[in-house]
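Everyone, carefully examine this protein record:
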Amino acid sequence: MYENNSAAEMYDLLYQDRKDYKAEAEEVAGLIREKKEDADSLLDVACGTGVHLEAFAGHFARVEGVDLSGHMLKVAAQRLPGTPLHQEDMREFELENSFDAIVCMFSSIGYLRTTQDLNAALRAFARNLSAGGVVVIEPWYFPETFLDNHVSGHALTNEGRTITRVSHSTRVGNIARMELHYVLADREGVQHRSEIDELTLFTPDDYEAAFSQAGLKVDYVEAAGGRPGYFVGTAA
């Protein structure tokens, strides 16, 4: 889905139409300041096209972003000119600056495949955290909360283009396999693209163990509306 800028822009339009990024950023900023009242810098890991990061910029004096996809970061750079953006793997990055808060939103952590990957990512987060800093992760679904054979769909029309997205999700072991189809119709005609996304169904114990081995004390905070909630970790 993110192999070119057009695909990243399609993703951007679809999810801005279905998610309240500003409300989520305000919610997470509140969780951070409950742990570190004076937090004024934030790193968004797996920042994608920068919509959450743009919202976080209204709550923190200094924000930066990390993502593996160069195409997503190109869109983010257009949205947030002058904001430092880094093309890095969340399992091994080490930036010049440290941060009072590091977040990983929209269940992006689920794209990691193993608990070893999860542990490595939390260690990387901790390495880039300032003293007393806070890590907030929005997890993917847990094995007991995943809905097998779940079907979802969404459509929007924007500036003469109509985009639809449908998905079907199944479980294969501890992997959620999502088959997704996108259809774009505009004056040039109709385009179709499809993809298979695979996200790991880590358990709550997996997340808590990863925070602990990274030296972070962790709490789980439930969220309204059937969302996965947040793991909130604090450094000593």
User: Anything to note?
Assistant: The chain is about 30% helix and 35% strand.
